[in-house]
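Q:
Just now I want nothing more than another pair of eyes on a protein record. Here is the record:
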Amino acid sequence: MSPLFRRNTPAAPRDRLVTLVRKPGCHLCDEAQVVVEKVCGELGVRWEQKDITRDPELHEQYWEQIPVVLVDGRQHTFWRVNEDRLRGALTGP
């Protein structure tokens, strides 16, 4: 298999990482976490959460958009997380 082909092949769900950027007391963040936990749990995807109030760089970049979901370090969505869209991003091309 050529290196070019492998680079364009999506990672298996177990090799992905979802990051939920959130802040304490945010009801949209709580709702987003429920979706992230569900989808990642079903697919075996690792996920983490980061508190925007403890990270100046994340605060600067995302403070108007929280919650923000990153897939493999790239912004996937913000405010509301759609379960089907997140699942598709983690399993599709």
Q: What stands out?
A: The longest helix spans residues 27-43. Strands lie at 17-22, 46-51, 68-71, 74-78. The chain has one domain: 13-91.
